[in-house]
UniProtKB/TrEMBL annotation:
Belongs to the GrpE family. GO terms for cellular component: cytoplasm. Participates actively in the response to hyperosmotic and heat shock by preventing the aggregation of stress-denatured proteins, in association with DnaK and GrpE. It is the nucleotide exchange factor for DnaK and may function as a thermosensor. Unfolded proteins bind initially to DnaJ; upon interaction with the DnaJ-bound protein, DnaK hydrolyzes its bound ATP, resulting in the formation of a stable complex. GrpE releases ADP from DnaK; ATP binding to DnaK triggers the release of the substrate protein, thus completing the reaction cycle. Coiled coil: none annotated. This is Protein GrpE. One of its GO terms (biological process) is protein folding.
Length: 200
């Protein structure tokens, strides 16, 4: 009874065609090889795509760097130009004062001898007022000095002198007016400082 199933299994194995078995194994091997080749092609394509993306990113970085450098150069040129010509408005106003000064000189030259002095003084006084107005327009003002307490931040002492009415340490005389622009000293006032009445 036990030997009959074994004989049936053996008979079924004997019925399998050896050629069919070889064919099946060959197809399986071919499929494995095809999958392997397909995998290799996919990796190659991916590497090609990644290389392309890296090259494109590198180009964008180089382009951005070039644009940034060009922007810095333009900004530097614009800043230099602004600094170079920052005084143009002041120069334009001063040239107008110069024109009026020349007109005053011409008028004094062509006038009679008696009128020459008076006309010249009046003309120059008007030009001086115009110049003071121009300076004030550009936030340039004269530094108070005469009768003020000597301040080395605004005054430059060129000498000292006794004065019966001016206390020691006060400015007795202004040799050259000083000016400041906003809160910055353009040039200090050159002054003579009093040493007092000299009674001590």
């Amino acid at each position: 009874m036990n030997e009959q199933p074994n004989e049936e299994l053996q008979s079924e194995d004997e019925q399998l065609d050896p050629q069919e078995t070889v064919s099946f194994k060959g197809e399986a091997a071919a499929n494995d090889e095809a999958f392997a080749e397909a995998g290799e092609e996919t990796r190659d394509e991916e590497m090609t795509r990644l290389r392309g993306e890296v090259e494109e990113a590198s180009k964008r970085v180089l382009q951005a760097q070039a644009e940034a450098e060009n922007f810095r150069k333009r900004l530097r040129r614009d800043t230099e130009a602004q600094l170079k010509f920052a005084g143009m408005p002041l120069v334009t106003d001063i040239l107008q004062v110069r024109d009026n000064l020349l007109r005053a000189i011409d008028a004094a030259t062509t006038a009679g001898e008696g009128e020459s002095t008076a006309g010249l003084v009046e003309g120059v006084s008007m030009v001086r007022k115009q110049l003071d107005d121009v300076l004030a327009k550009h936030a340039i003002k004269e530094i108070p000095a005469e009768g003020e307490l000597f301040d080395p931040n605004f005054h430059e002492a060129i000498s000292q002198m006794p004065h019966p009415e001016i206390a020691s340490g006060m400015v007795a005389h202004v040799a050259t007016p000083g000016f400041q622009m906003h809160d910055r000293v353009v040039r200090p006032a050159q002054v003579v400082v009093s040493t007092g009445d000299g009674s001590e």
